[in-house]
Give the backbone structure.
Amino acid sequence: MKKIGVLTSGGDAPGMNAAIRSVVRKAIYHGIEVYGIKYGYQGLIDGDIEKMELGSVGDIIQRGGTKLYSARCEEFKTEEGQLKGIEQMKKHGIEGLIAIGGDGTFMGAKKITEKGYPCIGVPGTIDNDIPGTDFTIGFDTALNTIIDAIDKIRDTATSHERTFIIEVMGRDAGDLALWAGLADGAESIIIPEFDDDFEDIIDRLKRGHDRGKKHSIIIVAEGVGSAVDLGQKIDEAAGLESRVTVLGHTQRGGSPSAADRVLASRLGAYAVDLLLNGQAGRMVGIQQNKLVDHDIVEILNSKHEIDFDMYRLSKELSI
Ligand code: ATP
């Protein structure tokens, strides 16, 4: 293999740039040419492709977002779109591809691999919703952004003796909510994986209030539903006047944390190693701090599991 491509697709995540840098530098270290494909699979179809040099990835390790831009591309879900992408790979002499993104991105990588062009997936999404890896690139940074926001909200919650309901990202996975809740001592954490008993949420609030607690924090993952609606329900049931904050896209941006930069650097380089070793249709990950790789089809057919022990602990500590 002499030429490989790299793209970022789906939602951006802090640390994607560090992963791109790692792919480019590791490939060049091995004497391989690297082509950056802009706007994910849309750029692959359109031939928005350019050769990357060592300097192309200078000064990006500390930046959020993705230098290669990202896009959602419906056309690539079709056979025709995929064939157009393959044509562009042929035209540029690209023999293998590294795709950084979430499960949708891996679906695209699987399709290209099936058409004879080896692809390796690198998990980059703040949600931490990918099986086969303990952490995805971007999760740690997003978590720290949430913690920072909640710490600030807590000052107001204490000063005004208020209950705050904070909605964080996580359509299918409650990891951000769970980790943030544990890190910030939330009274209740409401996530899509568990059907929370509404009475239990109210009881916790009342117990806290009865023992003189000045404020309460409830964290809700977006996948559960609207925090505003939940706030109204809680206010009616507990006789409160809570405040709702939806953190939204602030969670996606920002300079990646040290942990995300290191993770991205390790995963990006490992993906290059796999391609050069003739592997195809794999996803790289980290489990128990060891680099691992899995069949991308297996990953697509399985589901990320939330850490139930952590969930239980959060309940025990917010008694
Ligand atoms: P995130 O979870 O952060 O949103 P993602 O990678 O899951 O990331 P998606 O929008 O689901 O984001 O997928 C990204 C892109 O991958 C899609 O816009 C599309 O181009 C491609 N893709 C998704 N599903 C398929 C599929 N079934 N076949 C081919 N390509 C696909």
User: Anything to note?
Assistant: The mean pLDDT is 95.
